Amino acid sequence: MGHYAIAGGSRGIGLAISKKLGAQGHTVLVLSREPGEIASIEGVQHMVYDFVGRDEIPSDTLTRPLDGIVYCPGSIDLAPVHRLKPEAMRAAFEINCVSAIRFLQAALPGLQASTARTASVVFLSTVAVARGLAMHTAIAAAKGALEAVARTLAAELAPKIRVNCVAPALTETDLSARFFSTDAKRTAMNAMYPLERTGTPDDVAEAVTMLLLPSSDWITGQTLGVDGGMACVQK
């Protein structure tokens, strides 16, 4: 069984990944502000850390061999360009891209110490990078940078460490609850997708887990869309 570390693994997509890895018998360290349901999941431990802040990530907790890491924290602040503030752009870049790199840097010794043929890094991006969506300037810019970082690191860290992205479309989490607050909104959201439904945390967790495990050890430098077909299919 493997050992994994998840940034932001106590809510939403991160929690679904934590549950899936724990159910498969892997050990998981979750770094997030609050433990949430983590205490009830066998094989999953929690460490308090806020990725919004700039405190140094306690890398001594990540020095044991790591077979993979996932960076889940992100933002979903939408605004038309005429109202977009530089501060909002910087904040989106910090949480979505800079902190992802900081997390990888802290975990790098553990990833390099993995006894697996390859260790795996998975970043969460967004469908808004591949498809132009109104009012998504800040998040698309930040996540687009993250995808570029992932390809760069896939080259730099090969052959020992693989780096990939998973790019979901709208997924039902606490962060996106306002988009599902009425039946009319839910119906409108579902109608945007060729598969006629929005995503769930489990949909994304399936893809992330696949990229983490050794069965995918010939995949690196890729962005996998988990978006109901939104990025490239028109029904």
CATH topology: Rossmann fold
Task: Please bin the fraction of helical residues.
Answer: 25-40%
CATH class: Alpha Beta
The fraction of residues in strands falls at 15-25%
Total count of helical runs of at least 4 residues = 5
Radius of gyration: 17 Å
Order of helices and strands: EHEEEHEHEHHE
**Strand order, biggest sheet?**
3-2-1-4-5-6-7
Count of distinct strands? 7
The stretches of 5 or more residues where confidence is low (pLDDT under 50) are none
Give me the CATH superfamily: NAD(P)-binding Rossmann-like Domain
Instruction: Quote the distance from N terminus to C terminus.
Output: 42 Å
What structural category characterises the helix and strand content?
Answer: alpha/beta
Count of all domains = 1
Give the CATH architecture: 3-Layer(aba) Sandwich
Write up what this structure looks like.
The chain is an alpha/beta fold. It has a single domain, classed as NAD(P)-binding Rossmann-like Domain (Rossmann fold, 3-Layer(aba) Sandwich), CATH 3.40.50.720. The protein is built from five helices and seven strands. The chain has helices at residues 12-23, 86-112, 137-157, 183-191, 201-212, and strands spanning 3-7, 27-32, 44-48, 68-71, 119-124, 161-168, 223-226. The protein has a seven-stranded parallel beta sheet with strand order 3-2-1-4-5-6-7, sandwiched between helices. Helix 2 links the parallel strand 4 (68-71) and strand 5. Helix 1 packs across helix 5 and helix 2 (86-112) packs parallel to helix 3 (137-157). The longest helix has 27 residues, at 86-112. The protein is globular, with a radius of gyration of 17 Å.
